[in-house]
Amino acid sequence: MLFFLIILGSPHVWAEDVSHNQASASLTEDVGSLAHKTKEEPSALTSEKILPDALNKTKPNLQWSLSAGKLFWSIVMILMAFYAIKFITEILERIAERWVNLRLMVMRLIPFMRVMGWSVVIYLIVSAILAPPIETLLALTASAGIALGFSSQDILKNVFGGMMILMDRPFQIGDKIQVREHYGEVVQIGLRSVRIVTPDDSIVSIPNSDIVNQPVSNSNNGESNCQVVAEFYLPFGIDLSLLKKTARRAAIISRYVYLSKPIAIVFKNEIHEGQSMLKMRVKAYVLDIRYEFAFASDMTELIVEDLLAKKLVKAEHLSKVLCLNERNDHD
Question: Is-above-0.85 flag for pTM?
Answer without folding.
Answer: no
